[in-house]
Amino acid sequence: MNHASIIRRDCGRVLSSQSPRKGLRLGTYIRIKRSLATSSSLVMPNNQAEPSTTWQDRSIAMEGTLNMRDLGSLRTNDGRYIVRNRLFRSANLAQITNSDMETLARLGIKTVVDLRGPKEALDHPDRVPAGTTIIPSPIIGSDTGDAIDDTTIRALVLDAGLPETMLNVAKVSQYGPYYRMLFLVNSYGTEIHTSKLTKYSLFFRSLLDLAPNESLLVHCTGGRDRTGMGIALLLKALGVFQKDIEADFVASNHALQPDREDPNSTAFLQSHSANVFLQPPANKYYQQVAKELGASPESIRNAVKLKADLLRRTFASIDARYGSFLWFLESQLGVGPEELNILRPKLLTEIK
User: Fold this and answer.
1) Quick check: 292 and 282 in contact, CB under 8 A?
2) Per the confidence metrics, is the pTM higher than 0.90?
3) Which GO MF term does the entry hold, naming one (predicted)?
4) Which CATH number goes with the domain that contains 321?
């Protein structure tokens, strides 16, 4: 890992779909669906007509990873902006090139928060420039004792309107972590999902400890669900407009498609960050895989596509469980008024 210092910590017990044989039961899934039904009608207010910037404007081209962008220039409700070149998000860094490492060094990224589980990080360790601190902060992981069982997989697949051919665990899993994505998409805003948001406390602590002249990057495997949720919590804490929070969240639907305009491309296969299920349905390889699995590429992808309503459900669930988002920050993440008074000046500016 090229002289990177690694902060080791107890990883705890978290959630994964890597082993479908045991773990989360059907009763858990039923409670999830009931919670979604009651929370989906609670919509967060939106006081901004148009996003203040696009994800394409903030995107950073990398040779060995995807979904990397700067959070800088997003506007807050008090008229300030997130500082440019201070906070980044991406997919994992296991396959980045030497040129990519030069980019990380040029951007001043000295801290990398890795939200992957321990086995994911061990199997595909990050490559980072010398002097970079990697902070393991697992949200879910395959070696922590929990898993999605076959009964839950069946309920998830059939509830999504997918055919029973999508229940072939060995065949589906060879093309990407589809069941994990399907579970996560169905868990947003539920009690089990909301209770696990406390795991982002180390991410916030890393930001509070960030030196003024240094930058931080946070990632998981694809930089999608786990990274997207952590960034959404941070942006809300900073007062970023809801529409901007949602736009950045759903941008991963496109940012994980390296060749969106070329239906014949198989370039995405070179990166384990971009599994086939996230590619455009028009992609010829995706169509072949979908045919093999007995489903349409549109139905497969739509079942795991990120939508703004997933965040709205989550924020509504936080309010219902903790009374307010600010109390959630203070009581569960250790970010009270004093910490916000440190965090906001560090990450915000009046200059776009």
Assistant:
1) no
2) no
3) phosphoprotein phosphatase activity
4) 3.90.190.10
